[in-house]
Amino acid sequence: MQEHAMKHRIHSDTTTLGFQIAPMIDVVFVIMLFFMVMVGSMKVERELKTKLPRTNDLTQLVEFPAEEITIAILEDGTVTLNEEAFDSPKDKRMPRLTCTLQRVADSSAQQKQPVLVTIQAEEQASYERVIDVLNSLHQAQIQNVTFTVGSEPL
Q: 61 and 34: one domain?
C-alpha cells in the first residue's frame, strides 16, 4: 500500500511546468511603467542662439578697448558696473544700467572700438538676475560678453 502511494506521489511531482508567459508580461509592463514615469521627470534643455566664429573671422584682427567693463552680480541681486551699484536688486528692467550701457555703446561706436563686457556672477547669484543683465546688454546692443563665476573665468 505504501508502495502504491509512493508511485502516485512521484508521478504527480514530475509534471513539466513549461514556459510561463504571464510573469514575463508583468515584467514588461513594470519596465514600461518605469520608462513612462522617467520621461516625465527629464529636464528639457533650452537652446541658446549663439554665433560661433568661422575660420575666415579668425584671420581678422580684433582691437579691444583700453578699458574693460565689468558687471558684477551679487548673491542678493545687486548689480554693479565697475564697482558702482545700479538699480534695485528687485528691479528686473534695470533702467539706469541699461541707459549707462547705451551711452557706453554709443561712445564706443563713435570711437569705432568694440565694447568688451565681463559679467562676473557670484556662485549663488540667481540665473534670473544674470538674464536681466543680458537683457540690458541686448537693449544697448552690446554683443561682446564674457562670463566669469567668482574669480575663475569660464
A: no
Please name every residue paired with 81 in a beta bridge, in sequence order, or none if there are none: 71, 84
Answer whether 97's CB lies under 8 Å from 133's CB.
Answer: yes
Q: Containing domain of residue 74, as a range?
A: 55-153
The three cell numbers of residue 33 are 511603467
Query: Taking 50 as the threshold, does the pLDDT of residue 19 lie above it?
Result: yes
The set of residues, in sequence order, having a beta carbon less than 8 Å from that of 60 and lying 6+ positions away, is none
Within-domain flag for 46: no
pTM: 0.55
Evaluate whether 115 touches 105 at the Cβ level (below 8 Å): yes
Query: How far from each other are the two terminal CA atoms of the chain, in whole angstroms?
Result: 89
CATH number of 148's domain: 3.30.420.270
Are 26 and 93 members of one domain? no
Question: Is 84 in the same domain as 120?
Answer: yes
CB 58, CB 76: distance < 8 Å:
no
Give ∠ CA 58-59-61 in degrees, rounded to 5.
95
Q: What's the pLDDT at 15?
A: 64
Number of domains in the chain: 2
Where does the chain show beta strands of DSSP type E?
Answer: 69-73, 79-81, 84-86, 117-121, 145-149, 152-153
